[in-house]
Amino acid sequence: MRRLQLLVPALWLAGFVALPLLVVLLLSIAQPGPGVPPFLLPFAWDGGLVLRPNWEPFGLLVADDYYVSAFLQSLWVAGGTAGLCLLLGFPMALGIARAKPHWRAPLLMAVLLPFWTGFLPRVGAWIGLLRDEGWVNGVLRGLGWIDAPLPLLYSDLALFLGMVHAYLPFAVLPLYASLSRLDLTLEEAASDLGATPATVFRTITLPLAAPGALAAFLLVFIPAAGEYVIPELLGPPEALLVGRALWQEFFQNRDWPVAAALAVALLAMLILPIRLFQRLEARR
Amino acid sequence: MRRLGLCLGLAFLWLPVLLLAGYAFSDSRIPFQWGGFSLRWFQALAANERMLEAAFLSLRVAAGSATLAMLLGGATGWVLARRGPFAGRALFGALAGAPLVLPEVVTGLSLLLTFVMLQGLTGWPAERGATTILLAHATMGAAYVAVVVQARLAGMDGMLEEAARDLGATPATAFRTVTLPLMAPSLVAGWLLAFTLSLDDVVVASFVSGPAGTTLPMLVFSMLRLGLTPEVNALAVAILLLAFLAAGGAMLALWRRTEL
C-alpha cells in the first residue's frame, strides 16, 4: 500500500512530466520531414547508432530577427504586465491586510474568484468593452467627447488591459501573504519617533514587503511570458510573442522542430525566474 | 487611500465580468447594447447542436480529469508531506511542481509530441481527442491538487497518525481512519479546482486534441477570434456561472476548517 502510494504518482510524473520534456528537447534537434508526423528523429538505428542532430532550428532562433523580436516582445509584455500588476496589486493587498479581520477572507475571495471563473469569458468581456461599437466607445460618444470610435481593440492598450486583468490575482496573493505577516508595531514605533506616514511607508512597509513583491512579480512574469490567448484575441497583429510564434510554427507552418526549439528556448529564458521564485517560496 | 486602491482594483476585476453577465440578458443583436430583458440568447444556445456537443465533451473531460487528478495529486501531496526521505525525493518534488510553472504552450506541445511518439512506438493512443485531453488535464490538475493536499497535511503534524499507530492501528487502518479524513477537504477543493482548470483550458486542449475533439473553450476561442456575438456572450455567462459555483465550492471546502 505504502509502496503503491509512491510508485503510482512517481510513474505518472515520469511518463507525463519528465518524458514530455525530454521529447521536446529531442524534437528541437530533429530534422523536419515531409511525412506524418513531420519530422525525423535526431538518431537512427542502422547497424549501429547513427546520430544526425539538426541544429538549424536553434540557429534560426538566434539569427532571424522574427524570432529575436518575439522573445524581446515577450520579455517586454511579461515584464510590463508584472510591473503593472504589482502597482495595482500592492494597494489592494495592503487594503485587505489592514481591513477588519472578519472582512479579510471575503475580500481575498473577491480577488481570487475571477481567477477561477472563466478565462475566455473575461477576455470576451474586454472585446465587448473595447471594440469599435463597444461599450467604452458608446459611452464616450454618448458624452459627446468623441465623434469617431477610438481604435481600442487589437492594440497594445487592449493587450495590457487583458493581461493585467487576467494575472492581477496572481500578484495580490503573495503580496497579501507578506503584508499580513508584517509586524505593525514597527510602523507604530517609526511614527512615534516622528516619521511622517510617507516616510513610514518608504522605510518600513516597502522594504519588509519586498520579498513578497518579488514573488508577486515572478508569479505573473513566468506564465505571462508564454501567454498565447490574450495577445491573439486582444493584441495587435504585430504583437508576435513567443507563445504566438510557437503556435504558428506548429499549427500553420507544421514545422515541429522549430516549434520545439521555441519551447526549449522559452524554458531556458524562464529557468532563472523559476529558480528564483522557488527559492523565495522555500524560504518561507 | 488604501481603501480607494482596493475599491478601484476590485472594480477593475469585476466590472467587465458584471457587464458581460448583465448584457447577456439583453434582447439586442449587438453585444453590450441594451435592448430590453430577454432570454433569447440562452434559448439559442440550448438549440445549438455543436455547442451542446462541445459542452458535453468538456464536462465529461473535466469530471474525468478532475477525478484522476484528485487521486494522483492526493497521492503526490501525501508523499511530499508524510513520507520521509527516499531516493529521488528532490526530483519527485520538482516534477510534481513543474506543471504549475511551465508555460501552457510548452505543456501542450510537449504532451502532444509525447502522444505522437507513443503512438508511433506502441500504437497507443490510436487517436487524439477526449482521452488525450483528459490525460493532459489530469496532469495539470494533479499538480494543483498536490499543492493543496500537501499544504493541508503540513498544517497538522503527524501526531494523530502516530497516536493511531501507538494504539495498535495498522498503517492501512491509520491511513484510512485518520489521514484520509484529514485530507478530505483538500481533496474536495482540489477536485473542484482541477475541474475548473479543465473547463477553462484552451491552449493545452488545442495541442493534444484531434479533429474529433472540440471542447467548449476551443469552440468559444474560435468564435471570439471572429469577434463577440450575443451567443458567445450568453455562453460565456453559462461557463462563468459553472466555474463560479465550482470555485466558490472549492474555497468554502477549504475555508470551513482552516482560517485564511
Automatic annotation (TrEMBL), chain A:
Record key words, sorted: Cell membrane, Membrane, Transmembrane, Transmembrane helix, Transport
Compartment list: Cell membrane
Topology term for the membrane: Multi-pass membrane protein
InterPro entries membership: MetI-like, MetI-like_sf
Membrane-spanning segments: 75-95, 107-129, 157-179, 200-225, 256-277
A Pfam family it matches: BPD_transp_1
Domain named ABC transmembrane type-1: residues: 71-277
Record family assignment: Belongs to the binding-protein-dependent transport system permease family. CysTW subfamily.
Protein's UniProt name: ABC transporter permease subunit
Organism: Teichococcus aerophilus
UniProtKB/TrEMBL annotation, chain B:
TM regions (residue ranges): 61-80, 92-118, 130-153, 174-196, 202-222, 234-255
UniProt entry tagged with the keyword Transport: yes
Family: Belongs to the binding-protein-dependent transport system permease family. CysTW subfamily.
Annotated InterPro entries: Bact_Polyamine_Transport (IPR051789), MetI-like (IPR000515), MetI-like_sf (IPR035906)
UniProt subcellular location: Cell membrane
Record-annotated ABC transmembrane type-1 domain positions: 55-253
Main location, first listed in the record: membrane
Superkingdom classification of source: Bacteria
Protein name: ABC transporter permease subunit
CDD domains per record: TM_PBP2
Membrane disposition: Multi-pass membrane protein
Keywords: Cell membrane, Membrane, Transmembrane, Transmembrane helix, Transport
Pfam families: BPD_transp_1
